[in-house]
Amino acid sequence: MTPNEPWAVTSGDRPDQDAAAPFEQGAGGLPGLPGHDGVGHDAVVLAGGGARRLGGADKPGVLVGGRALLDRVLGACADARTTVVVADRRPTARPVRWAREDPPGAGPVAALGAGLRHATADFVVVLSADLPFLAADTVRRLLTALSAEGAEGALLTDADGRDQPLVAVYRTSALRRELSALGEEHGGLTGLPLRRLTAGLDLTRVPDPVASFDCDTWDDIAAARARIREHGHVLDEWISAVKNELGIDLEVDTGALLDLARDAAHGVARPAAPLTTFLVGYVAGRAGEARKPSPRRPARPPPWRSAGRTKPGRPTGPVGPVGPVGRTASLPVPGPSRDSPTWPPTPRPTRARTPDDRPRHPKR
Known about the structure:
Shape: elongated
Low-confidence stretches: 1-39, 314-334
Helix content: 25-40%
Mean pLDDT: 75
Distance between the termini: 120 Å
Number of helices: 10
Number of strands: 11
Oligomer: single chain
Order of helices and strands: EEEHEEHEHEEHHEHHHHHEE
Radius of gyration: 36 Å
Strand content: 5-15%
């Protein structure tokens, strides 16, 4: 096999994109696992399927508990040194590296081959983008199982005991070996099922019916949303989604905020609850942004002081009956005083009253 073959997995997916080029994430990994001393593990997330069972909807972007499915999966593999998403580019909660199988829609094996071109670590986490309950602890358990058993891969099994090859960790060298063999046997990777790939691997299995749950249909998505609500996670999920959207990372004292909102609602009025929490958050944000002038560089005086002027808006110059000369008075204009040359005021002209000016009343 040569790198020019379509199923080669030894270089980048474009001629100008080398697999060893600097990545967008920092170093990570799990200390103590073989091959992870300064190397870490990579992650490949497959997110480019057609979602036919969802009517062609954008499945990675479907919200569950206030977060997109893809962002949930990216949060679970955040320890990876490099995360490659095989799909068309889209906004994500954290930086990733993008890849695409050729041609697009060529199937999961071809997509995995495209993503694996960017993997340089000894271990690679392979995930689909529709796992609402996947957590970082699950990924760590898979890495630990793979190390302890000495196998070539560790994958989750669902509630029915079926293998889930897209919730798994593999040795990168073993995946490359099998992908190359499949490419040579079939003349490429397009349209091949995943079972063809995993059939040649020595696998260990980790049962987990919750983390392995994937969303293939709208019923699955409804079940995932209901589970989050029933288990009381919806508030935490929503806070995480808001923090991701705002780009902030801080601890939220949920209990204190809810107590404050409750006291405001009961002691003042119901609309006072959100208004009070907003004002508290605003003050906290302003306090965090406040900066004292540096002792080496005194604060610059306002421009009107340096120019020997008064603060804008204050009267300057002689004051006449209509306010400062050359300016419009900001206060009501008083009438002429006794010291004014226009005193006394000119009386309004009047005329003599006539019998026609008398008020007329209707006859009773």
